[in-house]
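[job 4471] stage=fold_predict status=RUNNING
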Amino acid sequence: MSGGGVTSEASGRLTGSELLTAMTELNSPALAESPVLYAFLDLNGVTAMDISTIQLRAAADLSIRGSRYQSASRVVAIHANGDLAFALARMWQVFVEQTGWETHVFRERSQAVTWVRARVAARFGIQAALDIDGRNHAGNGSA
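[job 4471] inference complete, writing structure tokens
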């Protein structure tokens, strides 16, 4: 995490267990002292997904629990160009509505980055360390 934000990229086959591991780390109680203000998840490199609805719901439950560990809200953008990734991301978005987070799913990376930058600046008064071309200023993780 850098500057209050987390970026994560997934590529190849994304499994439910990989998703749950990433969501556990992103929503850890240990982050309460250094809250995640924004998250940018890039699923554009995902070529296949092996994620059940039960696993997706469990990932959302981790997010819901994680939202209780920090007082600040979170801005979350998911870049998902593929139809399945986009649909699952939208399903996760509906599941986590109760967090109060600002979430959005985009098919175009440039739109996702522009939205995160604007929302993070307006909400927290900081600059989100993201590049439109895919090189993030904050470190890249992988889901």
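[job 4471] summary: Residues 136-143 have pLDDT under 50 and may be disordered.
[job 4471] exit 0
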